[in-house]
Amino acid sequence: MASKIVGLGMYTPQKELTNFDLEKMVDTNDTWITERTGIRSRHIAEPGTANSDLCVEAARRALDDAGVDAADLDLVIVGTITPDMPFPSSACFLQAKIGATRAYAMDLSAACSGFVYSLSVADALIRAGRAKKALVVGSEILSSMVDYTDRSTCILFGDGAGATVLSECPEGEGVLSCHLHSDGNLWQLIQCPGGGTVNPYSPEMMEQRLHSIRMAGNETFKHAVLKMVEVSREALDRNGVGIDDVKLFIPHQANLRIIQVVGKRLGIPGERVFVDLERYGNTSAASIPIALAEAKEQGRFAPGDLVLAVAFGGGLTWASALMRM
C-alpha cells in the first residue's frame, strides 16, 4: 500500500501586517520589500494564540474536505519550529482538541522543510501498516520569534497552518516518493540561537535578542537554489518522469527571487509554478500545505495530475515530494 492526500485545509489569522505597517516599525518601505522578496503582506496571530489553535482550524477544514472523522485517524503529525511549549507536543494538543482519540501524535522539527519531512514520515508509516489514516499539519507562529528591529528578517515571516489528510491507496497512486536531506555543518545560515540548552532563557538572552530568527541572506539564497533544484530532479529521476509531466510545481514560499531562479533552472513555465507568498510571506512548515490547499481551491490541478513540492530550511534541511493527486 501507499498513501494519498484525500483532504486539504488551511488557516491564517485575521490580523494582517502589510509592508506599509512595517514602514512605521522599522527602516524599510513597500518598494524595497516587494522588489527583494515579492511579499506585500503577512498574517500575524494575536497574543495568546497557541500553535495548536491554528492547527485545529486547518485540520478541521482538511477533515471536512476528506469526509473523515477525527476519531478515525491513526496518526497526527505536526511539522513546526514554534510549538505551544517545549512539551507536550503541539500534535498532542491538536489530538485532544479535535478528538482524535485513537491516534498517536508527535511533532517534527525541520524548519521550513517540516511539512515535507512530516509527509514522508506519515507516508512511510502507512506503507509499513502502522496507520491507515493520518493527519499531517504544518503550522507556525513565527511572529513569536521575529525581531521587529531587524529589517532583514522581520519583513519575511508570517503565521499560518496548512493540513492534509492521508489515506491508504494502491502503490503507484498518491505520494510517489519523498526525498529528505540535511547538512548540519551549515546550521549557522538560518538559526534561532536562544531558548534551548545552549542559550537558556534568561534576561541576558532576551536583551541580546537571541530568541529571534537570524539569517545569512546571500549565502542562504545560493544554497536554497542549488538544493531545491537538486532535490526536485531527484524526485523526477526516481519516478522516471520529466518536468513537462508535472502539472504544478509548489516550492517553499520563502522569496520570489528564489522561486523564479529555481523554476528557470528546472525549465518549468511560470504558469505552472504556484506562488502565494505575496499575501502570506514565509510561513515555514506551513508554506507548502497552505499552497496545496489554495491550489486545489483555485483548480490548479485535477485528479491524476502530478504535483511536485520542494522545500528548503534551517538545519540546513531540504526535501521534495512527488504526488499524483
Beta-strand level of the residues, as a percent range?
15-25%
By CATH, the architecture of the largest domain is named: 3-Layer(aba) Sandwich
Please describe the biggest sheet, giving its number of strands, its sense, and whether it closes into a barrel. 5 strands, mixed
Structurally, the number of domains stands at 2
What is the CATH topology descriptor of the largest domain? Answer: Peroxisomal Thiolase, Chain A, domain 1
Query: Could you give the count of β-strands?
Result: 13
Q: Low-confidence stretches at least 5 residues in length (pLDDT < 50)?
A: none
* Backbone CA Rg: 18 Å
N-to-C order of helices and strands: EEHHEHEHEHEEEEHEHEHHHEE
Separate helix tally: 10
What would the average pLDDT be, to the nearest integer?
A: 97
Question: Looking at the chains present, what oligomeric state does this protein adopt?
Answer: single chain
Text of the CATH class of the largest domain: Alpha Beta
Assign the CATH superfamily of the largest domain.
Thiolase/Chalcone synthase
Notable characteristics:
alpha/beta; 4-stranded mixed beta sheet; 25% strand; single chain; 325 residues; Peroxisomal Thiolase, Chain A, domain 1; 5-stranded mixed beta sheet
Quick structural summary:
With 325 residues, the protein is α/β, with parallel strands linked by helices.
Describe this structure in words.
By secondary structure, the chain is of the alpha/beta class. The chain has two domains: 2-171, Peroxisomal Thiolase, Chain A, domain 1; 176-324, 3-Layer(aba) Sandwich (Peroxisomal Thiolase, Chain A, domain 1), CATH 3.40.47. 33% of the residues lie in helices and 25% in strands. It has ten helices and 13 strands. The chain has helices at 19-23, 30-37, 51-66, 90-98, 114-127, 203-207, 217-239, 256-266, 277-280, 287-297, and strands at residues 2-11, 16-18, 41-43, 75-79, 104-108, 133-141, 159-169, 174-182, 190-191, 214-215, 246-251, 306-313, 317-324. The chain has a five-stranded mixed beta sheet with strand order 1-7-6-4-5, sandwiched between helices. It has a four-stranded mixed beta sheet with strand order 8-13-12-11, sandwiched between helices. A hairpin with a 3-residue loop joins strand 12 (306-313) and strand 13 (317-324). Helix 3 (51-66) packs across helix 4 and helix 7 (217-239) packs parallel to helix 8. The protein is globular and about 55 Å long. The mean pLDDT is 97.
